[in-house]
Each structure stands twice: as structure tokens, then as C-alpha cells.
Amino acid sequence: MASHLDLEEQEQIDELKHFWKRWGDWITWASIAVLGSYAAWMGWQSWSAKQAAQSSALYDTVERAALSADMALLDRSVADIEDKFAGTSYAQQAALLAARIYQEKARPADARKQLTWVIDHSDDAGYQALARLRLSALQIEDKAFDAARQQLAAKVPAAFAPLVADRLGDIDMIEKKTADAIAHYQQAWKGFDANAEYRRLVAVKLAALGADPEESAAKETSK
Fold first, then answer.
1. How far is CA 74 from the centre of its chain?
2. 3-state class (DSSP) for residue 147
3. What is the DSSP letter of 154?
């Protein structure tokens, strides 16, 4: 009986040797690849978590500087977060916040610089759209209407489309293009939610131009 078991064990050992001789190298390299990929993934996860923590802490500094109007600290901290953590959402939020403070503190050139940075570096379409809208407002103040229109011509998420149309209507009004202004304001009015406060503001603009958004909507519905 023992001899029979020994023979079975020997056969199993021989089969295992044959299997390993044929597939051993492939299994070894496959294992190395899997373990390497796992190690790389874990390393990336660790790096991402570290980036998020550090960028969050630096954003807190930007926010604190903005709230206290410490412009020297704001300048340094926003430059640091953009330089070290440009790919994070915290850097883009910091740039948008800094742009607003710079605008309030009569530093329009710095505000434009931060908004342009968001447009150029962000991979978030929402942040980009918000930056374009704010930048176009500054350009309108500078009477750079063509530049503002160019910013507003970029593709934006659907949620921002009414705001873009409203801003284009503002440019049309300044340039005394009444028909174009009405068309853009009507587009904006239709795009906003029925209960949106901004929709009421657009309706006021239309009324000032002698247009009734409700009437225009009814005409389009009846076509």
C-alpha cells in the first residue's frame, strides 16, 4: 500500500516538474507583472492621498488670506498651490477665489491672470466655464468686446449656457445691437429654471428692451 502511495506521489511530483518546466517562466513573469502593477497602483493611491492632503492644507491658507485680506499671503499661497499642485481641484478653486479678491481690491490684471490660469490648466469644464464668464466680465469692463465674445464662444456645460447667453446679451446691449440682445436674453430666459432668481433679472432686461419673454415663448410653442 505504501509503495502504491509512493508511486502516486512520484507521478504527481513528475507532473508538477513537467508543468513547471513548461509554464514556470511565464507564471513567474506574470506574477511579477501583477505584483508590480499592484505596487504601482498602491503607490499612486498613496501619492494622490498625499497630494490631496497637502493641496487642501495650502488651500486653507489661500482661503484664510482671502478672508483676512492679507494680500501678501494670498499672493504667496496661490502661487505655491498653482506651482506645486496644479492638477488638483484645490488649485483651481484657489485661483478662482484669488481672482475674486484681486478684482475686489482693484487688481484686475492679477484677476485676469488667475482666471486665464484656470482656463489653461483646469480639466474641469465647469471651472473653465466659470472662469470664462468672469474673465469676459472683466473684458467687458475694459471694453474689449471682441475678446469677451471669444471667451464666450467656447463650448461650456449645458448648465452654463443660459449664463453665457445672458452675458452675450449684455455685450449686444452695450453695442446697441437691440435685436441681437433680445435674442440672447430670450435664449437665456428659456434656459434658466422657472424658479431661478436670475431668470427674473433676464426678464427685466427683456422688458427694458420692449420684449416679453412669455409672449415670445408662446409664439415659439405655437409654431
1. 22
2. helix
3. S
Rounded CA separation 213/222 (Å) = 14
Q: Which of 58, 140, 126, 67 is nearest to 101 (CA)?
A: 67
* Those residues with Cβ within 8 angstroms of residue 156's Cβ, 6 or more apart along the chain or in another chain: 125, 128, 129, 132, 164
CA distance linking residue 131 with residue 161, whole number of Å: 14
Are the C-beta atoms of 77 and 101 separated by less than 8 Å?
Answer: no
| Three-state DSSP string of 159-209 | HHHHHHHHHHHHHHHHCCCHHHHHHHHHHHHHHCCCCCHHHHHHHHHHHHC
The mean pLDDT value for 70-89 works out to: 92
pLDDT tens by residue, 21-52: 666 666 666 666 555 555 554 554 554 556 66
**DSSP state letters, 57-88:** HHHHHHHHHHHHT-HHHHHHHHHHHHHH-TTS
| pTM for this predicted structure | 0.73
